[in-house]
Amino acid sequence: MKKVLITGGAGFIGYHLSKRLLDIYGNDAELVLVDNLQRGRMDDDFKNLLKDPRVKFLELDLTDQNSYKELGDGYEHVYHLAAINGTRHFYERPHEVMRINTLSLVFMLEWFKKENSIGKFLFTSSNEAYAGALNFFGLLPIPTPERVQLVVEDTYNPRWSYAATKLVGELFLIHYAKMYNFRGLIIRPHNFYGPRAGYDHVIPEFSQRIAKRVDPFPIYGADETRTYCYISDAVRAMQSLMDSPKTDTLPIETVHIGDFHEITASELAEKMFKVTGWRPKEIDIKFAPPGSVKRRLADVSKLQALTGWQPEVSLDDGLKRTYEWYKAHPDKS
Ligand SMILES: NC(=O)c1ccc[n+]([C@@H]2O[C@H](COP(=O)([O-])OP(=O)(O)OC[C@H]3O[C@@H](n4cnc5c(N)ncnc54)[C@H](O)[C@@H]3O)[C@@H](O)[C@H]2O)c1
Question: Record's InterPro entries (predicted)?
Answer without folding.
Answer: NAD(P)-bd_dom, NAD(P)-bd_dom_sf
